[in-house]
TrEMBL record:
The keyword Hydrolase applies. This is Matrixin. Residues 265-333 form the Peptidase M10 metallopeptidase domain. InterPro entries: MetalloPept_cat_dom_sf, Pept_M10_metallopeptidase. SUPFAM superfamilies: Metalloproteases ('zincins'), catalytic domain (SSF55486).
């Protein structure tokens, strides 16, 4: 859950982890979040580590990783993840995952690194986010073009955030409220098309992943699980282009994904032209990135070539999958 400035968030508990960097070491003993007294104050990282903490998580409890990055604590046995695409130059955390055990204990990962939790809870989080592999599944390397452009990068440049869709299909609806232009949906649909394409200028890697657009909706609940996969617009802090919220069940399957684009960005480019005007953020490129998260791709930070790099600048076209994006989607589905 990112902080949204265009509407109020339901009153609830915030477990503040803003000062958590560098990551807190895993704990052999953990605080109790299953006591009778509700958690009713902001907890610092040192307090969360203290075995003496004893309170009950509220339905609206969120874990605050950074000022503009919050994750709602999920129901027991589930992992909730928030991933942000930031503007170029940002160094703030861009992803966080929270697991809640049956006894209320929490585990946390920030940008893919373990940050909080006992050995048992951290192990459960890692197990759930490991991609389920069908029995007998095999995967061959992507077919890369011999003369692929340098910007294609390497076929090894991909990472997973955890969980896959049952039957390889991501169903979603669209809320047009506060969209910047009438052609915004068309641009977003192109993003979903590009992330599920088998081929690009960088090569070919077959994937069974498909998106299923199911029309418009009035749902408006970013960051809160409500059994609806909604794509739309919300007002985020400056420096955020888009956010993906996902929930993965105990079997490692995606049960809900919401995507929101920042309606406070005033310089979106929603056109289809491959030449993105200078000073404009390309909505198709952002939609391709967020759709990648929707299917289970994580940020890849070791090279800026992939679509899944965690920042994007103005005037940049990153609509089609690079070599690593092709391989990643092929491995996932």
């Amino acid at each position: 859950m990112t902080r949204q400035t265009n509407r109020g968030r339901a009153a609830g508990v915030v477990i503040a982890l803003t000062a958590l960097m560098p990551a807190v070491a895993l704990m052999s003993a953990t605080p109790s979040f299953a006591a009778g007294v509700p958690c009713d104050s902001t907890l610092s990282p040192s307090e969360i580590k203290a075995v003496g903490i004893s309170c009950r998580l509220a339905p609206a409890t969120v874990v605050r990783v950074a000022e503009d990055l919050e994750v709602a604590v999920p129901e027991p046995g589930t992992v909730a993840t928030v991933q942000l695409l930031r503007t170029h130059g940002s160094a703030s955390p861009s992803a966080a995952s929270v697991y809640r055990a049956a006894d209320g204990q929490l585990a946390l990962r920030i940008d893919g690194e373990a940050a909080l939790g006992s050995t048992a809870t951290a192990g459960a989080l890692n197990r759930i986010l490991a991609k389920p592999e069908p029995a007998g599944a095999t995967k061959t390397q992507a077919s890369l073009l011999a003369a692929a452009p340098a910007w294609c990068g390497s076929y090894t440049q991909y990472a997973f955030s955890g969980g896959v869709w049952v039957n390889s299909t991501y169903p979603w609806t669209y809320n047009s409220k506060s969209q910047p232009a009438s052609d915004a949906l068309q641009a977003i649909q192109y993003g979903f098309k590009f992330i599920t394409d088998d081929s690009s200028a960088c090569g070919t890697d077959w994937t069974a992943a498909t998106s299923d657009y199911r029309g418009s909706t009035t749902r408006y609940t970013w960051g809160t699980r409500d059994n609806g996969n909604v794509v739309g617009w919300a007002g985020f802090d400056p420096g955020i282009l888009g956010a993906t919220y996902s929930w993965v069940d105990g079997s490692g399957f995606r049960v809900e994904v919401d995507i929101a684009f920042n309606n406070r960005v005033t310089n979106w480019f929603t056109g289809l032209s491959g030449t993105v005007p200078s000073g404009r953020y390309d909505l198709i490129s952002v939609a391709t990135h967020e759709a990648g998260h929707g299917f289970g791709l994580a940020h890849y930070t070791s090279s800026s070539y992939p679509v899944m790099y965690p920042t994007l600048g103005t005037g940049v076209n990153k609509r089609v999958k690079r070599s690593g994006d092709l391989t990643g989607m092929g491995v996932l589905y």
